[in-house]
Amino acid sequence: MDPNESTFYALTSPKLSYGHSAGAVEDQKTFIANMVNGKSDFVTINIADQTVEVEGNIGYVRHTFNAVTSTDPKIAPIKLKIFYVWVFEAGAWKLRARQAVKILI
Questions:
Q1: Which DSSP string corresponds to 2-26?
Q2: Percent of the chain, pLDDT > 70?
Q3: pTM value > 0.85
């Protein structure tokens, strides 16, 4: 699937805080630019152990993320625990925050 800038804007909040397992934190504009420019690509993705909780207009999602990434020229497996915060605003669910932590493989 190719990343689409307008889709990412539709799914994310302007207040997005996107935390990576290595410690980098991106705002909405930086996150979308990095996804669209192909800086990192996923060869495979497997999501497991997902839980979803909704309280009012806030949704919390946790899961284990197993993937193989291709960051030219390196291909590497990753295993992460990821936590997302979604907010229902203006009639749609928007990703407000995401934080990942590495699980040693």
A1: ---HHHHHHHEEEEEEEE-TTS-EE
A2: 96
A3: yes
